[in-house]
Amino acid sequence: MFITTILLLLSLLLHVVAFYFIVVLFTKLSSMKSVSDNQRKVLEEAENSMTSFLIEMKDENDRLIEHFRKQDSTNNLPDKEESVRTTDLHMEPIDKSKAKLEHGTSTQDNTDKLPVHLGGIEDVQDIVEIQERSPVTYKTPEEEALSLYEQGLTIEQIAKKLKKGKTEIELLVKFRQNEREF
């Protein structure tokens, strides 16, 4: 009878522990489901925002193309396909003009062969400024730290300026002072 009571209590205790673990696992499962649902919502929102962004970009590109077509039609330029063909046709004379330049001939007669949008290219002046740079001397971080120390900066200021540790700068200065004594 005593053994039966102990076995019953042990069984009851094991059932309670099992139910406890079942409840813990159920709460973890429900929290994982909620996290999964949140991630799915965030993914859907990101997808929707990217879709709307792409649609907006497409509309803006369409408006830009329409603007260029209107501008081309007001300038009496051929439509896009014809202008591409004419630019391709004018590529060869431009290359020939480069060859004539190499042989010393003039390109004045070739300006008539340039595409319409490059007609005023002869009016553009090239301005190039060349400046001599003074030779740059690079200092090692140790040399720079020592020169800053000699200028009167504190170790903390030097460490902040060089983005180094304060103790590293202190050791560097002490070693340099020891070398000067010997």
UniProtKB/TrEMBL annotation:
Extract the ranges annotated as region (Disordered): 70-91
Bilayer-crossing residues are 6-26
* Entry keyword Transmembrane: yes
Q: Which keywords are on file for this protein?
A: Membrane, Transmembrane, Transmembrane helix
User: Which named protein is this?
Assistant: Swarming motility protein SwrB
What organism does the UniProt record list as the source?
Bacillus weihaiensis
